[in-house]
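*** Backbone structure tokens ***
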Amino acid sequence: MMKMAQVVKALAALAQATRLEVYRTLVAAGPGGMSAGEIAEKLAIAPASLSFHFKTLTHAGLIESRQEGRFIYYSANFEAMNGMVDYLTENCCGGNPSACKTPRRTC
């Protein structure tokens, strides 16, 4: 489980619209992630601006990168994401997390 300082850093990193959108995009992409160019194109973000956001998300432990040839691929750190959710729900509903579940809305 994450410690409070780690959770605060992660939440601070996500408390910005572009970074939240980048992170959500990477979560949707799954473990394989996406190249920086694909993310920039999909979200219409300038590469220079995007690298600043990658740095913040990486520093918070929310994303990881890997080099493949001349491309850098980014992926969500699902262990960190789950750790953050676990931390936030640890004492949910008096220690009974199943009681915190709300019915899912259908579209």
In short: The chain has one domain: 4-100. The longest helix spans residues 17-29. The mean pLDDT is 91.
